[in-house]
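Progress against Task 2.4 (sequence-to-structure conversion) is shown through the following example record, which the project officer requested during the mid-term review.
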Amino acid sequence: MTSNPFLGVVFHWLGGLASGSFYVPYRGVRKWAWEVYWLVGGFFSWIIAPWVLASINTNDLLAVLHEAPMDSILWAYFWGAMWGFGGLTFGLTMRYLGMSLGMGVALGYCAAFGTLIPPIFHGEFASKVLGTTSGQVILLGVFVCLAGIAIAGLAGRSKEREMTDEQKRETIREFNFTKGILVATFSGIMSASFAFGLDAASPIAVLSAQHGTTTLWTGLPKLCVVLLGGFTTNFAWCVILNVRNRTGYQYFRREIRPSSGGDTAAAPQAERAPMLNNYFFSALAGTVWYMQFFFYTMGETQMGNYKFSSWTIHMASIIIFSSLWGIALKEWKGSSRSTKGKLAFGLATLVFSTLVVGYGNYLGVVR
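Structure tokens generated for the chain above:
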């Protein structure tokens, strides 16, 4: 199958749309603590969707995983677990900063570390990136992406300064800039581990191709391993919170106890959770979240010899679509024209960065 970097960019845009949208269905969850709906959604994100779609679209999934080198499996799982620390704090970032600013800060760190570390680790940065025209164009696209993230972050900072505390909490109930920035920094750096996990799992994709899987789907078995690591971390933390906040009963019972933690601390005795709706919206959010990497692995197969650049396009796409959701959900209501102009310029810069990276990959394919 011939690589088509611009088709790859489109797949990454679709992945960014999924990632930038996944938190929206969680807004339909009522009366559940954060750790409850996060874990329910996580079962679909990290276990159900990856295994179901990999089983449908690839050949001999279990045999491929059985034949994969053990060090590849272990490192993919390990980096997935490390990513889990970033993933579970990513939800807190949304709570404290909102979708626009939260994703901008966290994904800025994630883009830089996740894109540049793999080629540096493999000793290819000098020869493959700095030493080729296509690599230099891709690196330029990475810096343009980081510039776009910075501009979007400045827009978010301007918005924060212009809004009153009442306005902030009207759209983001638990807004806390300082706490949010600290959580977003940790989340962004740890979330870059996902890129390392996919890199470590590369032999699994090769084996899947050898078993007759179409090139476009060969990355799906990798996700089963990496996301299992992420599930482990998130599951452990959510269970800890269930015990500490006494919210474990919420998975099974409608009645909300007034002494429970999380979002239900002040719930009256007679209040009931809409169980069917909560499970539906959590499952929808989890499935939409997974689709980002479903499309990511498809896009990665189209990027030729510079697959590491997929991470930059993915991060840029997430920020673009999450910012558009932030606008739609009125998170920027009350901001000045100058602040909205910064946001628009930042988003335009991010779109341009994905095209620059795509063009750099195209140069690598045609030469």
